[in-house]
Amino acid sequence: MQQVGYAVGYMKSTDRAESWRRSDGEQIALPATPDTIDIVDGAAAPDGTTDFRSGNVAVDSQGTPWIVYGQQHHQPFEAWIARPVPERGWQKISLLPPVQEKWPDRAVKTSGNIVFGADDTMYIAATTVNKNVEAKTAAWGHPSAEIVLLVSKNRGRTFQVYEISPPDPSTPNWLPNLERPTRHEPIDVPSLIYTHGHKGTTNKEIMSNDVVWCDVAALLAKK
């Protein structure tokens, strides 16, 4: 039985990777295993086929880590953000409802990435596809792929959802990437880039796709 990406896990280090701990501070014996890390979603020993895809980790102004991840083992595809809550485990917030509220025929195929701005605004970039697309064909560069941006000023209680890529049913818009801070100072409003173009048929093809830059600050200023 195929088992791919059967869990999303978390661990942290405060001593430059000399040791690792769970979100509650419990030390993890090395080498870490699915049974010892902090399981955010899924299971150390899954029952059936699972396919979780994790994105990046971002830390808000209170020092809380947020993880963005998704699943592709059943329809509609779905993505979540999650944070550890003391004595309650991981709080998970689905990104599917706010996306489908605006586009009922779409699902969130990939987890994309998450960034916090200077004012603690949360920005999440994600790829959506037609909700009826089968997992096998949607895995990489499906023609229905489009980029969306979710913005929250209240830590995921509510979202504003923006269409980033102009819809093009013949060519995928995919692989979004939000600008992330490379210094101690936070980014005010992150920029966003994504790929516009086809995936090709083999890993040996030389592709010439467009990389599109989006001025998120200007986009939000128009709303």
Overall shape: globular
Task: Indicate the CATH architecture of the largest domain.
Answer: 6 Propeller
Mean pLDDT metric: 90
Sheet with most strands: strand arrangement: 5-6-7-8
Instruction: Name the CATH class of the largest domain.
Output: Mainly Beta
Taken as a percent bin, the fraction of beta residues is 35-45%
Quick one: biggest sheet? 4 strands, antiparallel
Helical content stands at: under 10%
CATH topology of the largest domain: Neuraminidase
What is the number of helices? 3
Uncertain residue ranges: none
Count of beta strands? 15
Cα-atom radius of gyration? 18 Å
In total, how many domains does the architecture comprise? 2
What is the string of helix and strand elements?
EEEEEEEEHEEHEEEEEH
What's the oligomerization state? single chain
Class derived from helix and strand content: mainly beta
First-residue to last-residue Cα separation: 48 Å
